[in-house]
Amino acid sequence: MERSPLLASHQARGARLAARPEAPEHAAPLLFGDVPAEYRAGRERCALLDASDRGRVRVTGADAADFLHRLLANHVRSLRPGEGNANLLLSPKGKVLFDFELARHAEHFELSTPPGRAASLVAALERYHFAEKLTIADTSADHAPLECLGPQSSSVVGRLVEVPPELAPFGWKALAWDGRPLFLQAVAGGALRLDAGAQHVERLWDALRDAGATPAGLVARDSLRIEAGRALSGVDVDENVYPQEAGLDGAFALDKGCYVGQEVVAKIDTYGGLNKRLLPLRVDHSDPVARGTPLVLVEEGERRELGLVTSWAYSFALDTGLVLAYVKRQHQEAGTTFELGTSGARATVVQPPL
User: Fold this and answer.
1) What pTM did the predictor assign?
2) What three-state secondary structure class fits 289?
3) Is 3.30.1360.120 the CATH classification of the domain at 7-54+143-228?
4) For 274, which of 45, 114, 184, 200 is 20 to 30 Å away at the CA?
5) In the chain, pLDDT over 90 holds for what percent of residues?
6) What does the pLDDT look like over 71-95, one tens digit per residue?
7) Please, are residues 244 and 96 in contact by the beta-carbon 8 Å criterion?
8) What is the spatial distance between Cα 294 and Cα 342, in angstroms, rounded to a whole number?
């Protein structure tokens, strides 16, 4: 769905809505009322996240596997139905244009995109589509996933359907729930993504909540992901970033043939030369830090900007603010401390996960 079909229901139940940082034109629950409880659910039990405004692109046809394998940064042809991966479409300069999860079906591929990105990905793929026998379609209207995050997620989801114990990272399974099809995929951070379609997403939300999942908003989500050091598309990752800089190592392959940007990615792996890397830094206060705030190293009276903040959250694990920032090489060791712009506040590199 271009917009979450659950927004009216969330508001009726007292959720506070806000713009998604990764897609400001999209609204999402900021919190449901008890942020510490939402955070603890993600750490200790099962947090339920509304991801129903994600996009989806379907690629179908005899040449679909070869076409995608030639373009995308991770493997495609070697995947079997029921398998998938995190994947990227890079620029010729090796920087990230699109990141998404890919699932291989028997006769097509599905690419689940961050909110608001499906139409742009379709257009980007079509630019490479010439005589290949395939069709590329935006099927976001039928895509309304929910995500369960936390160590008890499998148990909670298992009260609705049988969760395959052998489900590999980014693997998926087509199941039946309440008389209708249910798509289940393992995604980043150990989360489970469930999709029963837009018409049934509210019923699925209620069923997961009744099974023990705790609804969680953006505040808890960002605390959990920044503590884990996970980049967010559109916030920490954009067309100015190499995948290695953003820690997206699992989304590209060094052992496959040519793809768009492959030469640059391989050269970085072989010779190094990354100028910056995304790292978490502990802040000495709990007030929000604006995206774009520079990290300044002060030595012998000289001020040098050596990094840039991309995300902020309150860290319950540290009981203070935590940011993700791109930090220049030779200044990335844990314990390195910077000033945050001219605010007088300080931020210190820490090691994820927290």
Assistant:
1) 0.95
2) coil
3) yes
4) 114
5) 96
6) 999 999 999 999 999 999 999 999 9
7) no
8) 9
